[in-house]
Amino acid sequence: MEYSILPMLSDHWPAVREIYGQGIATGNATFEKELPDWWKWDSSHRKDCRLVVVETSDRQDVLGWAALSPVSSRHVYRGVAEVSVYVGSAARGRGVGTALLQALIREAETAGIWTLQAGIFPENTASVTLHKSFGFREVGGRKKIGMLKGVWRDVLLPERCSPIVS
User: Fold this and answer.
1) How many CB atoms within 10 Å of residue 132?
2) Model pTM greater than 0.85?
3) Which of 2, 49, 87, 140 could join 64 via S-S bond, C-beta 3.0 to 4.6 A?
């Protein structure tokens, strides 16, 4: 499969939103139950470090997306961000997540991010494996952190400290 990684633009939002909805539907990607509109999503994510993977032949067909969210507005945490990586159901298992996370790490380091963190449901083994493959280490977990569809869910907490940003 040939694809390109591009900066995410607001024009990509309909496809990004659809892929986000597919993640919600799995029940193992997020606690979110409803899709946000562009303005809500845009205001909760960094303006840089937003990527999409598009098929090279089409350049409009978004296969997946990745973005960073700030973990705090406090200055001391300016170099810490939370990772989101979502791959469309038709593109899963084809290396899209790997390409996205690799590119997102590069973008994050260019932007001066020194720590990336994630919150992953333990059942989402593909995401757990993906993050580990890029040097994320599990620093802990939270038990019964939230309820989804009437079931208490745990969340693993992997993080990656940049070897080049200090």
Assistant:
1) 13
2) yes
3) 87
pLDDT in tens, the chain (166 residues): 688 999 999 999 999 999 999 999 999 999 999 999 999 999 999 999 999 999 886 667 899 999 999 999 999 999 999 999 999 999 999 999 999 999 999 999 999 999 999 999 999 999 999 999 999 999 999 999 999 999 999 999 999 999 999 8
What are the tokens at 9?
């633009």
**DSSP letter for each residue of 87-111:** E-GGGTTTTHHHHHHHHHHHHHHHT
Kindly provide the b/e burial profile for residues 84-118, where b requires at least 16 CB atoms within 10 angstroms of the residue's own CB: bbbbbeebeebebbebbbbbbbebbbeeebbbbbb
Distance of alpha carbon 3 from the chain centroid: 18
Between CA 149 and CA 28 the distance in angstroms is 11
Domains and CATH numbers, the chain: 3-116 (3.40.630.30)
Between CA 129 and CA 114 the distance in angstroms is: 21
State how far the Cα of 101 lies from the Cα of 109, in Å rounded to an integer. 12
